[in-house]
Amino acid sequence: MDSELKRELILENFNNPVNKGLLNDPSYIKEDKNNSSCIDHFTIELKLEDNIIKDIRFDGEACAIATSSLSIAISKLIGKSKEEALNIIENYNNMIEGKEFDKNILEELSIYEDVSKQPARVKCATLGIEGIKDLLKK
Question: Which pTM value belongs to this model?
Fold first, then answer.
């Protein structure tokens, strides 16, 4: 994917993130995540039924990388089983850490592949997806 398309995807998902806005529904589990070195903060809600992710919502304030990566992850993970989601998250984290990963599993999430070369952005790119991972492990 060329750099201009990556930039467009990041900006689109930053300016118009999917599922932004909390429902405060008791059938959702909730997690707060923040980046202690900057302003990034998310509250994430997840609804899991019969081992399938039915919905993920979020609210908060964060940079373009943090917000867009969470938005794309939400789109990718809704409808997946808990195990499928954890596999996607593991591959994503491997990519961010510069380790071996399956690009086919990640699809659009692979636009963050170069983040491994920017250590200051790693926490931004993983904040939201780590919140989802924490919820799936509850």
Answer: 0.94
Fold of 3-136: Sufe protein. Chain: A (3.90.1010)
C-alpha distances in Å from residue 89, one per residue of 16, 25, 64 = 22, 25, 19
CA–CA gap between residue 49 and residue 29 (Å, rounded): 11
3-state secondary structure of 14: helix
pLDDT digits over 3-40, tens only?
899 999 999 999 999 999 999 999 999 999 998 888 89
Quote the CA–CA distance of 109 and 15 in Å, as a whole number.
Answer: 17
Write the CA distances from 65 to 81, 106, 109, 118, integer angstroms: 25, 16, 11, 12
